[in-house]
Fold each of these.
Amino acid sequence: MLTIVERSGLSATQAATGAAGQERREAVLHIIEEVKRDGDAALFRLTEKFDRVVLPQLAVADEEFEEAYRVIDPEVLEALREAIANIRDYHERQLRESWMTTKESGTILGQLILPLERVGLYVPGGTAAYPTSVMMNAVPALVAGVKEIVMTTPPGKDGKLNAAVLVAAAELGIRQVYKVGGAQAIAALAYGTETIGSVDKITGPGNAFVATAKREVFGQVAIDMIAGPSEVVVLADETAKAAYIAADLLAQAEHDPLASVTLVTTSRALAEEVQRLAASQLEGLDRKEIAAKALEGFGAICVAADLEEAIDIVNELATEHLEIQIQDPFAHLGKIKHAGAIFIGDDSPVAIGDYFVGTNHVLPTGRTARFSSGLSVDDFLKKTSFVRYSRQDMLDNGRKIAALARFEGLQAHARSVELRLERK
């Protein structure tokens, strides 16, 4: 049940940090070394061990894509296609271009903005199906211009992948799909095997072992982020609808027993009504047990003295998802300093961002919204500066540059400039 707490008690609602325990880290390091040493053989062996399935091959065959299109619900296919279009439209607006500027002295400065060449996408699987993870990770990479995207996801007990996941990949042109999950998939993407080539960056969510593996291979490859359990904070006043808030808190709570759900409100009456409705709505959920654990362990309602205090609390929490359900929300939007994504108004639950509207649902958790952003096109671009220094600027500024170099004790740096000043 949701508990009404004071501001000082809100720290208990923060989701687990995601830092790997030593025992888990040691297990992951062993898996990584096994994959580096044995390649595909390790992947087959570990898939049998952890997923309880013996695979004839790692790669998804063309026939499996064709079967996925035959069995997928037409309504789901239509929704996937429209969601992909929305996500693409939103992310195309983020795309940057290379630039160049010329100064009067003749010096040319610029920046090349180039896509990564090869990206690995990890999609959780097994008993669950997350086609939205495919879309949210692949679309910004495609918009950025990444030429090659490979995907790994754990197989089900029958050795197959979910039809919607395969169709989502196919709709985005991803045909290099491999039936491997867990830390072993991350190791394969980072170091390569006989079948799976190494990549430049790995993105996508996963369990604690996947997160730990991503942390361990960082440096060999880039990663998107180390994501913890899901979070939502709802900022509400007396005008908000309690039934909506209760439903939205439960929507996050059903993700994970460690999910963090918090209501920050200026209305005691609303707080009590949300508390009551959350308890009653919980009874009808298929994932009632999971949601109940999240509410008990990481759920809270905080009644603030006024809206200014409520906003201060929201900024302290720096949540993954923030819903704003107050009168005149845009008058206060500029006061929000830290949030992964913001959903404004009665008809903007987090679910629209999770599935359809176009914004990305790969977001910072565990208060990392204080210094990081959600997944975007920028995550798949690299930036290279270039300069052509003019003769005039070298003559005007060379001695200043040499003076700075000599001050830092780098004589050769200074001499490389001074030689050019001596040229007639």
Note: Residues 74-92 form the longest helix (19 residues).
Amino acid sequence: MKTIHLAQDSIRDLLNHLLKRSPNNYGAYESTVASIVSDVKERGDEALFEYTKKFDGANLTPQNIQVTQEEIDEAYAAVDPKLLSVIRRSMENIRVYHEKQKRYGWFDTTPDGTILGQKVTPLAYAGIYVPGGKAAYPSSVLMNTVPAKVAGVENIIMVTPPGKDGKVTPTTLVAACEAGATKVYKVGGAQAIAALAYGTQSIPKVDKIVGPGNIYVALAKKAVYGHVSIDSIAGPSEILVIADETANPEYVAADLLSQAEHDELASAILVTTSETLAAEVSRWIGIFAEKLSRREILEKSLENYGYILIADSMDSAVDIANEIASEHLEIVTKNPFEVMTKIKNAGAIFLGENSSEPLGDYYAGPNHILPTNGTAKFFSPLGVDDFVKKSSIIYYSREALQKAKDDIIRFAEAESLTAHANSIRVRFEDK
């Protein structure tokens, strides 16, 4: 990791370097993704099966593309009962948290006969993308599916890449069944996003696509946005830790590495007011990296996007944290709650030395699908709001419209929209 004393030039250079990780800079892949998306749109299942054979080595047909009840039963038999219990406890925490996000319709009336309100309606079809293949991410299944279920979505369509044997990883499949996915299809990559966006002979078209994935998935979501809605275009994982001299350097180092192990583009940053802590964290990172299983990925991630930033005050540390707008932000200071009040931009905020980032990944309840690459300045974590839409309700009595008509006509005529004005005026003309 590079150790830097914060200054205006170093901050600017750092921000520019981190933005290189953004999916918006993956231009070299865009033409490939556009070709795949277009092909699936035109040829449907035929193209979907060809790409699955090419990229995943699995032979799909209309008969085996959807997971069957027999495969679900096999998955339950293969999953450790203790892990199944953990999945269920985690899912309950996620459900309880997201229940608190639910919005309800409302109406507001006045004595002269106006009714204004808002109608909240769940999406009819939600598409859930879950990474797969060699890896298993049952936690992502829960984080995508549970809020959709809480929102009231009736059709939750999940896609995930199969292994070469044409099967879905058992833990992923069990999590999907527990969380309430309606159907699970064995497809991944850009071709799966295209199938959800446009529909094929086997896979229904959805209204919104959510969930993280690799570069191809991110760019495919970007390509189909507008035809369907998406949650966001996810980039590589990131963590930023704000710490002072009271922090435990061993804990801080362990937490930084918990994100660096995701991939070589992951970012791990410590911002501290203590040079002593900075040196100790660096030492512990070296100790841990020697014995962790993903050492090669860790080392490349830290070499490329790992930083220890030394700030001259806690206010300066907060300022750089707000500029970076990290996906995960840990505050390990003497009074983390006070520091938290100054944070404006972060996906998820973890307070105190016992609230490490993996707690949010797996168990606490808040969603772990979060904005990355500085987009926490304007995006939020995935939640129930992502799976509903809102309609405005407007009712005016004749008495109420009588009071407002002159204002509306004047406004319409100011914009030279005479038909708008006439729509109001005609209601009050003598016949």
Note: The longest helix spans residues 81-99.
Amino acid sequence: MDSFCRGHQRTKAGRVGTIEDLAALYGEVAAPSIVKEVDHIHPVYRPFIEAAPFAVLATAGPGGLDATPRGDPAGFVHIEDDRTLLLPDRRGNNRIDSLRNIIADPRVALLFLIPGVGETLRVHGTAEIRADDDLLSRFAVAGQRPRTVLRITVSSVFFQCSRAVIRAGLWNPDSRIDRSHLPSVGTVFRALSEAAIDGEAYDQALPDRVANTLY
């Protein structure tokens, strides 16, 4: 009986529980998937970071995992050198889940997305939280400095192929959903607070609040 059949027999009942089970189901890694991973920001990967206006920052800590959006004009993640990235932490809700995690566990991952481009770029490394006065000033926008800047030491960089983006129709205009088809932010707050928060008032104030507190 070949390895695929053995793996299928082990896993057909449900849970895949071992590395061997995974290997039997998925087979060998294709050579290009190995070649594309490097331990620094290679010149061919630099343009992806410089063109990305959006990234997802992943962290882990005692309280669990966190994945949070980060966005600004393209190039907002600054390439200091081929092993160092600088990421400003813009104004938010002050939960600072990702920053709390980094204090406990410096490992981070970034997923860069570029509108209209199928490939994404993945960066792994470790981060430290910086509040140097000159560094904060470098990332000021409209006179507003970030509270902190992440200094990320890169350990791994590789691109992800376009299959997931294509399957999702992510950049296809026909896939866009009208915001009114989903619960408004005020509706969510009203439901979760059992009406302690006035959802209608929250929705009315939200556009101005967001516009006035971007930075």
Note: The mean pLDDT is 94.
Amino acid sequence: MPREQGKDLKPEGRPELGEVGGIPLPKTTCNEWARIQSFQAKPDDLLICTYPKAGTTWIQEIVDMIQQEGDLEKCQRAPVHHRHPFIEWARPPQPSGVEQADAMPSPRTLKTHLPVQLLPRSFWEQKCKFLYVARNAKDCMVSYFHFQRMSKVIPDPGTWPEYFEIFMAGKVGWGPWYDHVKGWWKAKDSHRVLFLFYEDMKKNPKHEIQKVIQFVGKQLDEATVDKIVHHTSFDVMKDNPMANRAGVPLSVMDQSISPFMRKGTVGDWKNHFTVAQNERFDEDYRRKMADTTLTFSVGF
């Protein structure tokens, strides 16, 4: 249902999205696009790849704890978003993600939300390792809705019924969920991609963390693995100022509207979707996902 003409159409200070190759992206990212595309990856780069709100911060913290071999003090050296440069991030006059990555010594761990077709070519050419986390579409939608409510640097999501339509149409930042997960699922057949599921990580975190340890080439003892499992649990991370975006200014994120780390559960969509929305979504989902072998074990 569209809003009435003239009623709060563009909440103050909320930027609109631009577009690159048919994919909606923040305008500041679009303005830096030539620089992002010419980014020079290195063979020992590890790129964390996710659709927004699919467990990005969670997997970042897991990877960092593995790389620091469970040393909590080292993992507290900086907020997680400074430890892993976000390559397409741009918000002048602050250093861009590309600048942060260029200044970082190797081996680098970087982050992106880009779909495969927009990733800088050098990542493929350098045969980098990619770590992808996928989360079921319904929970992604709910989490993204609440994130857009509190984030001042992306468009206002409108009401839940409005956002439901926007998300299904893929008119959100970083484009359609469906194409994103399918693209990365296909990429794993020809590139070094470890493809993880958020739902599996919730169900058996130790098992999934051990996959990551093996993928990044570490060998850790049982006690260290258990320590990582504990310190990357939602309840612990929610109280970790280096993970929960506590230091981000109110002008960027208003966590009184919705906390950055909100619930971290599987199935929260059931508290948001109406029966009619669920039926419509399922029908649309079956059609859009008919051409892939990718399936999600829960959430539907």
Note: DSSP finds 15 helices and six strands in the chain.
